[in-house]
Amino acid sequence: MSFEDEDRHEAFLHSRREFLRKSLAVASATTALPLLSPLRAAAAATQRVTITLWSPAGQRFGKANAGIIPLFERAHPNIKVNTVTTSIGEYFPKMATEIGGGSTTYDLFQAIPTFVVAFASGRKIVPLDDYLTAQEKADLDADIPKKYYDTFKFEGKIYGVPNDSNTQWSFYRKDLFRQAGVQLPKAWDDVEGVVKALQKTGQKDGTFAYTASLRRGEYAGAHFSTIFWSHGGEWWDAGFRPTINNDIGKKTLEIMLSLMPYADPGSINATEDDTINAMGSGTAAYAPVLWGNSVLTNPSLAKRGAQIGTSVPPRGGSRLASPMLGGLAYMIPVGAKNKDAAARYIKFATSRQIMRAWVKNTGQPARVSALRDPENLKTGPYFPTLAQALQQGHPQVRIAESFQLLDALGNQVARALTKEVTVAQALQDIDATFTETLKKGGHLK
Amino acid sequence: MTIRTPTAALTGDERRPGRAHEILWLVLVGLVVLIWLGPVLWISNISLKTRAEIAVPVPSFIFRPTLENYAAILENPNLVRYAANSLIIASVTTVITIVLASLAAYGLARFTFRGREGLLTWILSLRMMPVIAVVVPFYIMYQRLGLLDTYAGIILAYLPVTLPFAIWLLYSFIRDVPVVLDEAAMLDGCGPWRTFLEIVLPVSLPSVAVTAIFTFIVCWNEFLLALILTANRAKTFAVGMSEFVLSYEVLWGQISAAAMMMLLPLLVIVYLVQRHIVKGMTLGAVR
Amino acid sequence: MARGPGGNWDRFVPFQFLAPGLLVLIAIVVYPTIAIIQNSLYDWNLLVGNRRFVGVQNYASLLADQIFLKSLVRTSIYTAGVVSAELVLGFALALLFNRSFPGLNVLRTLLIAPMLVAPVMVGLTWRFMYEPSIGVLNYLLSVIHLPGLRWISDTATALPSVGLADVWQWTPFVFLILLAGLQSIPESIVEAAVMDGAGARRIIFEMQVPLLSRVILIVVLLRVIDSVKLFDLIYVVTRGGPGNSTYLASFYNYVVGFTQFQMGRASATAFLIMLMISVLTMLLLRVILRGERL
Hints:
The complex is a heterotrimer.
Chain A: H1 3-31, H2 38-45, E1 49-56, H3 62-75, E2 79-86, H4 88-100, E3 108-111, H5 114-121, H6 134-143, H7 146-150, E4 153-154, E5 157-158, E6 161-162, E7 168-173, H8 174-180, H9 188-202, E8 208-210, H10 218-230, H11 247-259, H12 272-280, E9 284-291, E10 308-311, E11 329-331, H13 339-349, H14 355-360, H15 368-372, H16 374-377, H17 383-392, H18 402-417, H19 423-440
Helix pairs in contact in A: 1-3, 8-9, 10-18, 18-19
Chain B: H1 7-11, H2 19-36, H3 38-47, H4 51-54, H5 68-74, H6 77-110, H7 116-128, H8 131-145, H9 151-175, H10 179-187, H11 192-203, H12 205-221, H13 224-229, H14 237-242, H15 252-274
Chain C: E1 2-4, E2 7-9, H1 12-39, E3 42-44, E4 51-53, H2 57-63, H3 66-97, H4 104-111, H5 113-116, H6 119-129, H7 136-143, H8 155-183, H9 187-195, H10 200-211, H11 213-228, H12 232-237, H13 249-259, H14 263-289
Antiparallel strand pairs in C: 1-2, 3-4
């Protein structure tokens, strides 16, 4: 069944349950009136509320939510959840316009950490602290890797609670590595050698050794940043002076350039979806940096699923890898009409108990307990890699201008990779753009 | 059947070229159209394949066709609704545009007055504005007016897109209609309105037909305004189609089927409307 | 006083015809127009919401931005190439179809099909066809023993590849308008020329083209404006890559507004793009009209 079929099947079952529940409710209300216990009376007296949840369509988001909503509605009979999904390519511009414009249509939505600082400082989303009990807060703090959970906090308050997490890690073809007689490289300095060996054996059946998401903008920017941060680099120092135009930046670009001759032709303009396809269809053998996804290790979705292994990205010298952190969390917009009910859903969807159902419905959890749960490993054998990578991960920068900076960085990286400019020129331009943006934003004096 | 065009001179024939020549010409044109339609044929090819067959590394032209993609589209109630939305929005916008634009084009084409050139330039300049900058102001304006996700809202948003284009097209065509027609009608006692409605408009029917087709297509295919200004109720087909592009794959089979299912009725509509263009042959009958 | 058919008219008369359309237009665009001008003078992050007046800083920064300037140059080259191709092909097709016999109607309708296919589908189809390994174009090339091209995977060929898809999609537009124009030329004039012994080349270039000059002008104007604003194809097929090779002005505008969420700068960008289009249009009008009245 295609994804759409499954969605509709779910919706059909959902509407059947709805009908049954409604008729049951009517029946019990009319016939059992004299037998109403005080508890039943209290429940019947609670107002029915409908909340609207907005999330990207498809795996991990729309599908996962659709899977657990019936469970939520059973546990909270007075709350109905309406979902709106938009395809992920169009989701962020539309979401930014609507939430930034103070829309009242949605009661809760999902977004990546980079939106938190901007939305929170612009007062477009509400803090969620008051909706969580002390116990719940402690549980979340203990179970979600601190570096990741912190990306959804701002000025000491919690603005987003995640049941989804993502970062970048390595995907590789175990069989092709074996064939070439090489091991997974532990550090970036070893990568070129391994890739060369893979290239030699791959020539026979036309597979490429290396693949990556290097499209201009956020893709190239994220790839660069992961390698850069893994070597100990930071975008700027304590005084917000940009620190990319230095030896670490130079080394990062040189590493990326050195691997280009072994890349599949689509890499230079690939998004993570293209790279996933390159790995999944057997076109490439090794993706050292790729945003996580479940397709590759799922044999029913990818041809070589069973052969694909995962690992944290290579180290930068002796430093542990620092892949960029992503993932989506639930947030409540200021214009939401039913904030209490929305918060109830958030608590339900991010609780420990729901994680197995979440994973079964294609979710990719943020809770370490869920990532280590043996039951969940059956669906997501790569979860341990994700758990490890999350602990090592590096958050994206926490200022409102982060989008501009990542895009500008990625633009220059792409120009360097296509040899439109030299490495030195690219680094200089990055420096200049960062300085201008940081000055304009009042961060750099 | 005679061919009375200058291209007849190319082949050296003048009045009655003979059937063989005509058939040859038809074949040539047919071939051109076939090659030009290549990508469209490719879409129809994909729409008849199963998911497994599409992912094959070597494209195949011989395979067992299946209708499962078309069935999936028909069973999707949302898509049918989006298509209906697009049809309504495009039709209403086209009608309003043609009415307003033909009036304005007549006024601009037939009369000279102070500010005429400036007006023409301003109208054209509206078309020069990239939609991206306009989208957010429209969103804010509509939020206050309660026009978000409504038919009226999106139609009003499309008019500044379609009107400049239609006005300029019709203006150019009406200019080419000989003024003697108007003057003859006015000598007979017709006022400007009667001249317009009974003489100029009927004579310009081919141009109106062409403009209507283009306006309809523009509305049908418009994406960015529809994406931002509509949500669920007024969502158009163009936006709906984009939802076949999932995170990890494109549902090629289904999106191709949807594209074909939309293309065919549109082709029929266009065919019915553009038959009027042929009538242009008799335009020269002034004397 | 207004001059019209047959003499002078009261100024009110053309106003009657213009009023409905103009009033509708003005009512709808007055707020967005003011908003864009105003926004371009502010630093406005769509997500945060608060705006800060910065005067012409947005414009200054754009004009100093190498990447933006390069995108303008790229767009100009692209537009010149694409519109020329569409004009030549469209005119050739119009000449081909400028006759009447059964079946031509159907063929003419079919030729419009590229414009009717949803833009998303057009983009996706060409992207799929351009795939180096599994795409149908390289497959066809291999069948006739030619090496496959890298199409949209190579910075040198990416922009022409997008241009090819663009020409494929919009030549029918040019074709249709030029055909309508050709068919409005009175038969009698053509017959007279043929009887005088004029050859095809003379008829086409010395009679038809000059008679069609206004129509050609409009078509070129409209296509230039649309080409500079090209967005859909870039968005679906290449998103500006590989590298920056297909990063055209309108897509730059989109990135600034909806990826970087800088609405103020995006408004300024739109204004500069509009300016560029006006300059191009002005030049074209001067060249094609050569002193004739509009």
